[in-house]
Amino acid sequence: MNDFLFTRRTPAQYASALHGTVDAVAIHLAGTERPRSAATPAELEDLVARVDLDRPLGDVAAVLEETRRLYLDHAVHFHDPGYMAHLNCPVAIPAVAAEALTAAVNTAVETWDQSTTATLVEQRLVDWTTARIGFPAAGEPDGVFTTGGTQSNLQALFTAREQRLSRPHAAPRQERLGRLRIVAGEHAHFSVDRAAHLLGLPADAVVPVPAGRDGALDPVALERALHEVTAAGDEVAAVVATAGSTDLGVIDPLPAVADLCRAHDVWLHVDAAYGGGLLVSPTRRHLLDGIERADSVTVDFHKSWFQPVAASALLLARGRDLRFSTWSAEYLNPRHAVRPNLVDKSLQTTRRFDALKLWMTLRTVGAPELGRTLDRVLDLAQEAGRVVADAPDMELVARPVLSTVLFRHRPPGTDDDAAERLVEPVRAALFDSGRAVVASTVVGGRRCLKFTFLNPVTTAADVERVLDLVRAAARDTAPLAAAAGAR
Ligand SMILES: Cc1ncc(COP(=O)(O)O)c(C=O)c1O
């Protein structure tokens, strides 16, 4: 009875289930040749619908076999070189081992009495990251692990809002809330807009700052925006700078932005969800110069640090700013806490021990190797940019900065509109074929294809191969695209 639970009576069942799982994944890994199967949504719906959830198979081996057919065979594989779509990475093997550990022990890091050393491990990594950022020690920097950039940005902006509202002011809180503004580059991640909405700010609270010619936030435009907000009698809760924008990969001019934030006495949040990996890059750390002057920073370990989802952190220059997230609940013994209770710093209560993944990765390969791995990906993006620029039937939309490459296929005689019309059918055809996964997005008002590289195993030959697939898909879909244009 209860043999399916992880207890002192079931080490053999646990080992057998895990070994079976590890073997299945290892065999699958060796056998994958494409980023995904070519199964249609209808076929996959049918596969899932046919499972009778009220008739258990009663045996992990049988369930593993079923799950292989349902999930593993059709999953989108980020470790395959044909996957070039979004900010997903192949994962560090020590981190996968950490997942197995934390899932089994099931640590919840919210209080000391549920976590002990897990709390200390997370805290060490937070301290390690704030030191890499270079926050002044006098502020006693601190932070907390979160589920991703979206949550880190939300907590950063919540903290900034509360910090602003805690300043003495004649107007009542509710009135001030309606006048708070967040000033952000036009390319800031959409989670900033959503955070503003969740934080009860008005619909027009996020003031977009136009980019300069390089696609990064223009400091002159930022200064103008800051003046306009105050001239209108509104208050700036925060300025958001992005270190690695999702599409262009651009890094806002952090020193100039920090100067302006200081001059206007406003909170600076740096969203380094994507570019945060540069903190350990042996060759490109300087691209983040100025980040140490931020009030808060988002770093996503599950992007450019090769960690499994979820692993992100919000880092704050002054640890005491985390007090805004602190709520008291008697059942979590706040009065008797002998060590930090991480729940005091987090928007979550029950929380996974995600820090162990990064810890075990750092303890296995070390930060320089992670940085070199990211460097390889960034080098590949430069090379891919050259390959695209040199191809007479391709148009490079922007010079690659981090690991994205934006482009359009432009067969001879194709005008701007026709090249744009090809984008979506080509992207869909590649995905449907299962041979490559690329993304599409809109830059400068026009749709384009997007490669996002985070796999150091991908080579320029893979890029050439996928460009050939793009050409073939364009030939097949051109009549459809032309018909769409004629309508
Ligand atoms: C710049 C930036 N910020 C925030 C996010 C959100 O991160 P997450 O998907 O981990 O919530 C992303 C996601 O791509 C991003 O590119």
Automatic annotation (TrEMBL):
What is the top-level taxon of the source organism?
Bacteria
Is Lyase among the key words of this record?
yes
InterPro entries listed in its UniProt record:
Aromatic_deC (IPR010977), PyrdxlP-dep_de-COase (IPR002129), PyrdxlP-dep_Trfase (IPR015424), PyrdxlP-dep_Trfase_major (IPR015421), PyrdxlP-dep_Trfase_small (IPR015422)
Tell whether Translocase is among the UniProt keywords: no
What are the N6-(pyridoxal phosphate)lysine sites (modified residues) in this protein? 303
- Biological process according to GO: amino acid metabolic process; carboxylic acid metabolic process
Q: Return the GO cellular component terms, semicolon-separated.
A: cytoplasm
Q: What's the cofactor? A: pyridoxal 5'-phosphate
Q: What GO MF annotations does this protein's record show?
A: aromatic-L-amino-acid decarboxylase activity; pyridoxal phosphate binding
Tell me the Gene3D superfamilies matching this sequence.
3.90.1150.170, Aspartate Aminotransferase, domain 1, Type I PLP-dependent aspartate aminotransferase-like (Major domain)
Cite the entry's keywords alphabetically.
Decarboxylase, Lyase, Pyridoxal phosphate
Family to which this protein belongs:
Belongs to the group II decarboxylase family.
Q: What is this protein called?
A: Pyridoxal-dependent decarboxylase
